[in-house]
Amino acid sequence: MNAGEREKQWMKEAFPVRIQDSCEDNWNVCMESGDVSDQKLFRDWISQVPGSLAPSHLVVAAIQCMRNRGYDVTEAEKYMDEGLKAAEEKDAATLQKITARIYYLLNTALRDAHSDYWKYSIYKDWEEIERNVTFPSIQEKKVDVFSDDYADRIYAGWTGQLIGGALGTQVEGYNTDNIEAVYGTITSYLRPPETYNDDITYEIAFLDGFREYGYEITSEQIADKWLELIEDGYSAEEVAIRNLRLGIRPPESGMHLNYYSDWIGVQMRTMIHGMVAPGNPKLAAELAVRDGIISHSNSGILGGMFNAVLISLAFVERDIRELLRKTIDCIPKDSEYYQVLLFALKQCEEQKSWREAWRKCEKKYEDYNWIHVYPNVAAQIIALWYGNGDFDKTAEIICMEGKDADCTAAPVLNALGIMFGSAVLDKKWTEPLGTEIHLLLRKYKTISLDKLCEVTVESVRQFCRKMA
Questions:
Q1: Is the pTM of this model over 0.90?
Q2: Fewer C-beta within 10 Å: the chain N or C terminus?
Q3: What is the rounded CA–CA span in Å between residue 372 and residue 170?
């Protein structure tokens, strides 16, 4: 088996675990040992996702990612079985040597000339993107940021995002068939919801910087906020934080020895950029890219653009399907990511049900890890299209699709909150959620939902006054 086939097999065999208690301790375990400890080494090979206990194999995933990115990883794959055996036996001495060998082979891997990846343009910064996209005209006048309506939409957006994150965390890392086998159809929380995860961490860091620098905030300033506030990360963000600590600045921090640069990390954290740039998709996209290049590149940063534009346009668009089309049109058309968006949209337009559309996308992107942007953005498009503005139906679809469900449910439910305001929020979602948000940050351990919304709204108003 190659790395992708092995990941597919693990996914096929993984069934959701019914968890009744809080998962906070699981998150703490992930933070308790240093970067070069044996426990960290073992977890990089074999671990479980804190919120759902889905299996995770980061070293094998790194090999898979490099193949997806158009490199010949045949030599690295030869060491997978030996490494997994050493990890299972807790043989740290052997495992450390194998791991180093694999990473050396990935770092020196040659391009695979037959890979489709190289048929498309590769994007690394905003200037390249801006030259290749025509954004819709600014519609700021349709959004009065000083109005109660704007404040209500921000409240509904953040709340929808927290609902999605809490709901999706309970099933992330599993596929549709296995979720259904254990839970049937998901129509509500599977256990008491928690806000304790890493996804919102980066948005809070951006917002903390935005309060100081406003719309002129740079990648370097956001990166400094990461160093100030964030102790550790996962996959691409972990690599980026290590690079930043070594003095490697953006965009190199998102590319240097970063095997996961096309994963979902930016796509999961750019709703904030849309919320602070209502009706201005170009500005939302630029802010998302400034943030995104800290930890990702190419498809990874385009994924961030997608959700930032989705949220920005949700302030001024009331037709969910037109919103999707307009958002897709803001992605560079010579990118591989754009082809994924078109394929998912085509399935929506041709298939009778979300299941039929999703099966097509599942098959199309089965060689990609469940944390990669491609299958996950396809899941978002399908959930929004077939949910068609219905909050409960959209939540059901996005969770039943599985994959990185917290990182997909959060943006789609944020978009519905922004689009329709707090009227779309049902008590069955909000009352169990509560109003206190728990964070994995040095400076902020908790923040109230009301305070988060207040800071978001007042920061936008502050800089809009200065520009007036």
A1: yes
A2: C
A3: 19
